[in-house]
Design goal:
Rossmann fold; alpha/beta; 4-stranded parallel sheet; 6-stranded mixed sheet; single chain; 48% helix; 318 residues; 2 domains
Length: 318
């Protein structure tokens, strides 16, 4: 396994992606502060290029490749956001991109991947199928694999969102992100532990995909489960390097119901007029579900993405 990234890698990533990634705004809401009793600072990564924080890691990984590797193109598997981000990063550098996507991916995310010129390979909606088809495409094309959350450059790139957040807000008592495969959570951990070591690190995970909470409680990876959650971006299983980083850094993971997540998604739209996807809204849902843990505190929340299929809003299906 490659060496774990460190905070210097996050700083290197910030410099590498600066010409390409957007410095997203930090949003506040007096209404949400009043509801929660906390002072909330939302890092608006749904306004990032490709509509999600994923562009940070994908861009860092693509532009870190040497010319020979880059010329062969890149390949990944993704539920949607990483694939769209990698496609955009590859297009920006002018190299080929292949993305393996499950058949049940959100149509908006699929459209984003195709719009940025990547070749889409559909597969069955399981992690095993994604990895198998990805390996097949890699063997056939010679493309360089950029894993959605275990790649060192991807992890470091994701940490730049929290780096920017802390740079704008100053000291925070708590920083919250969603957690799925763990790229954002582990990158955030590197940035927060270096820049705000006193802050609590808290991660929100779907009740129907609780592998991070289960793994940290057991002290080893516990990945034998079938994800059942509306948070399509959080169905990936926790990566080994991500687990190691979280385990060693005194973090807290709390599971959140899909019902609470969808309520938070709808509330955020009603109050702020900002559209975020369920995998993003889960972080706000955590605060709304446990106001006693955050009252009186300065809380930073990374809004991970906003790629929502407006023709199939999740509460309409419910």
């Amino acid at each position: 396994m490659p060496a774990l990234p460190c905070f210097d890698d996050v700083l290197d990533a910030a410099a590498r992606i600066a010409p390409h990634a957007r410095v997203t705004p930090v949003l506040t809401s007096r209404s949400l502060d009043a509801l929660t009793g906390a002072q909330l600072f939302f890092k608006a990564e749904h306004l990032q290029r490709s509509g999600a924080f994923k562009f940070r890691g994908a861009c860092n990984a693509v532009f870190a490749l040497d010319e020979a590797d880059a010329a062969r193109g890149v390949v990944t598997h993704s539920s949607g956001n990483h694939g769209g981000a990698l496609a955009l990063a590859a297009r920006t550098r002018g190299i080929p991109c292949h993305v393996v996507v499950p058949e049940n991916a959100v149509e908006t995310k699929l459209a984003g991947i195709r719009r940025n010129g990547a070749v889409v390979h559909l597969c069955a909606p399981t992690i095993a199928a994604r990895e198998a088809v990805c390996a097949q495409v890699q063997a056939e094309t010679g493309a360089h694999l950029i894993h959605p959350y275990t790649n060192t450059f991807v992890i470091a790139g994701q940490g730049t969102a929290a780096l920017e957040l802390l740079g704008e807000t100053g000291p925070l008592d708590v920083v919250i992100t969603p957690v799925g495969g763990g790229g954002l959570a582990s990158g955030t951990t590197l940035a927060v532990r270096a820049k705000a070591p006193q802050a609590q690190l808290w991660f929100a995970e779907p009740e129907g995909a609780p592998d991070t909470a289960r793994s940290l409680a057991a002290g080893r990876l516990e990945l034998d489960f079938t994800p059942d959650t509306v948070c399509d971006g959080l169905r990936g299983t926790l990566g080994e390097p991500n687990f190691d980083l979280l385990r060693d850094n005194d973090v807290r993971v709390t599971t959140v119901s899909d019902a609470d997540t969808l309520a938070a998604m709808r509330l955020f739209w009603q109050i702020t007029k900002q559209t975020i996807e369920p995998s993003s809204a889960i972080a706000l849902a955590l605060v709304l579900a446990r106001p006693q843990d955050f009252a009186g505190k300065r809380v930073g929340i990374v809004l991970s993405g906003g790629n929502v299929d407006l023709a199939a809003l999740p509460w309409m299906a419910a």
